[in-house]
Design goal:
Layout (H helix, E strand, L loop, with lengths): L1 H6 L9 H22 L8 H4 L1 E10 L9 H17 L6 E5 L3 E7 L4 H8 L5 E11 L13 H10 L23 H9 L24 H16 L5 H7 L9 E4 L5 E5 L4 E2 L3 E9 L4 E8 L1 H14 L9 E5 L2 E4 L10 E5 L4 H14 L3 E11 L1 H30 L2 H27 L5 H30 L4 H33 L4 H30 L3 H4 L9 H4 L3 H9 L9
Antiparallel strand pairs: 1-3, 1-13, 2-3, 4-6, 4-7, 4-10, 5-6, 8-9, 9-12, 10-11
Helix pairs in contact: 2-13, 2-16, 4-5, 12-13, 12-14, 13-14, 13-16, 14-15, 14-16, 15-16
């Protein structure tokens, strides 16, 4: 009889509450440390709290191509616009769809917000341009003569575009491509292109003859392009976005690669994105590598055949054509033979990079543009006033909850208050970490969700405390009452939180915009309520049940048997003969 009695443990018993508490506190400290280490010590604020501009754009299709407005194309447009505005240094901008035709762009107040507004309303421009010159993506110093210096050549070889995908093995930038002296002018002449921002002249020199001397305006344009190219720094997103901003298809431009490791001088566009019929990322089974396959329209096929025929006769890097999206070079493959109809791009691709490039090429072929429906300016002062009012409301609600807990539960209120504090700390830390991780922004509806969560969290404590009190009313002492009350309280808490989380999930799915902030915060705090109750409140309650103040039912403990109306006969019979209680057997 002794062995079964020794191994028996009341339902819901927790053998090592101290260890659970220690592990939980270590996890909290680790999260807080990660927050400070990341440099994001405060949650990221939404546009209604930080101030800025909210733009509503409506998609429109060309006549006869209404099917182009679909979910896949709208999602691709959102991705392109998001890269645009954040690439300009507009941190924490938000781009999201609303319905099946609208896109909402929220741009926080900043130095480049106006330029971002200009860009989001224009269709993504995709061009295939011949490469005239390529170098490392850092500023270069001009040499005094037309001969490239050894140091410049070494710098280009060492820091060139090492990851350019190509149809054939990509050649590294040679000394001929180094932007020194008259390299730009020579490249323009060799390619047979007009000088920057000029139209072709009818007097094209015959092969073997010396090209005519550029006019003063042409020479000035070439000199300016040379200077811009030498000073171009592609190390930041902002500089890469500004490099070719506002350029036209007929311009010769200085541009950066999307990764910033290389910069280019690109000739006028030979092919536009609308000439691409479709593009897709596939695995080449023979070579075991990811490639991007492109199919051109009939008109685009002729253009592609013409440009690849010319480029295949050139030396590196002038045998390359750049795929430029919004002025930035996505890829710059080299050409070794004349191609037409379809082509493939291979190189250092993985599945994600190949898919991204295919999406870029496909998006350039879409007849999709956007018109500005509305522009709303939100001032930070208005958001600050609303946040201040919301925080006051939250503080009043929290104070009322604490007063109620102290008056009704007395000593147990300490457990509830500690649990609320822990839940608040976890919510704050996780919100701060989610800002850079998933671009979560704390807006006013999200603050409302956090305030509502105070009641959800307090409700879980009340359920557990009342279950404990019910057990004491049945005549049990505190330690077994804490353990026997837990299974029933746990089921009730799980069901209640599941309903709240389900409501938050449905609200998040069926709504858009700021309402999703409320739903997300409500769902997050509901999950944290379960974590806190299971890993903090229950272990703390188990430890306090061993203290005389609570175990002996002190009047201020909130667990006084007399005040709760406990059944004395059951308690006396428990002291004299425990096995007589059928519930304890």
């Amino acid at each position: 009889m002794a062995a079964p009695k020794k191994g028996r443990r009341p339902a819901g018993a927790q053998g090592r509450p101290g260890r659970t508490l220690v592990l939980f506190l270590i996890a909290m400290v680790a999260l807080a440390g990660g927050m400070f280490a990341s440099g994001h010590k405060t949650p990221r604020l939404g546009i209604d709290l930080a101030g800025g501009t909210s733009i509503t754009l409506k998609a429109k299709a060309e006549p006869g191509q209404e099917k182009a407005i679909n979910k896949a194309n709208m999602d691709t447009a959102v991705s392109i616009m998001n890269r645009r505005v954040n690439g300009l240094g507009v941190s924490e901008a938000e781009v999201q769809t609303q319905g099946d035709r609208n896109i909402i762009v929220n741009i926080p107040k900043g130095t480049n917000s106006e330029q971002a507004r200009q860009q989001v309303g224009t269709t993504a421009k995709l061009y295939f341009r011949p490469v005239l010159t390529v170098a490392a993506g850092t500023p270069t110093k001009p040499a005094p003569s037309t001969t490239p210096s050894p140091s410049a050549s070494k710098g280009a070889d060492k820091n060139g575009d090492k990851n350019k995908p190509s149809s054939t093995p990509s050649a590294k930038p040679s000394s001929k491509a180094t932007p020194q002296g008259r390299a730009v002018t020579d490249a323009l002449k060799a390619d047979g292109k007009p000088s920057p921002k000029t139209t072709p002249t009818p007097n094209t020199p015959k092969p073997g003859t010396t090209p005519p001397t550029p006019s003063a305006n042409d020479a000035a344009a070439v000199a300016k392009l040379q200077k811009d190219f030498e000073s171009l720094d592609c190390s930041t997103k902002e500089s890469r976005a500004k490099a070719a901003f506002g350029s036209k298809a007929t311009d010769t431009i200085a541009s950066c690669s999307q990764t910033g490791d290389a910069k280019y001088i690109l000739g006028p566009a030979e092919i536009e994105g609308t000439d691409v019929k479709k593009a897709k990322a596939v695995i080449d089974q023979q070579r075991g590598m990811w490639i991007v396959q492109m199919d051109f329209t009939g008109k685009g096929s002729k253009k592609f055949q013409s440009i690849t025929g010319k480029l295949s006769k050139q030396q590196s890097p002038q045998n390359q054509f750049a795929i430029a999206l919004d002025g930035q070079v996505v890829s710059a493959p080299s050409v070794s033979q004349t191609l037409s109809g379809s082509a493939e791009i291979s190189g250092s691709f993985n599945q994600r990079s190949a898919t991204d490039l295919a999406n870029v090429l496909s998006y350039g072929a879409l007849p999709l543009s956007f018109e500005e429906q509305s522009v709303t300016t939100v001032t930070a002062a208005l958001g600050a006033d609303q946040l201040h009012a919301g925080l006051i409301a939250g503080a009043i609600g929290l104070a009322l909850v604490i007063i109620y807990l102290v008056l009704y539960y007395r000593g147990l209120a300490l457990v509830a208050i500690l649990s609320l504090v822990v839940s608040a700390i976890l919510t704050y830390v996780i919100m701060a970490l989610l800002g850079p991780a998933i671009n979560f922004a704390l807006n006013l509806p999200a603050v409302c969700g956090a305030i509502v969560a105070i009641g959800i969290t307090a409700d879980s404590f009340i359920v557990y405390f009342e279950r404990i009190r019910d057990e004491i009313r049945e005549g049990r002492t505190l330690r077994p009452a804490v353990e026997r009350a837990w299974p029933r309280a746990r089921r009730t808490i799980m069901v209640s939180d599941f309903v709240s989380f389900l409501a938050a999930a449905v609200l998040f799915i069926v709504t858009v915009g700021k309402v999703q902030g409320f739903a997300f915060t409500l769902g997050l705090t509901t999950l944290l309520d379960i974590v806190v109750v299971f890993l903090f409140t229950k272990p703390v309650m188990t430890l306090l049940a061993r203290k005389k103040f609570f175990a002996n039912g002190h009047p201020w403990s909130g667990l006084d048997p007399q005040r709760l109306g406990a059944k004395p006969p059951l308690r006396r019979s428990r002291r004299t003969s425990a096995p007589t209680d059928p519930k304890e057997a």
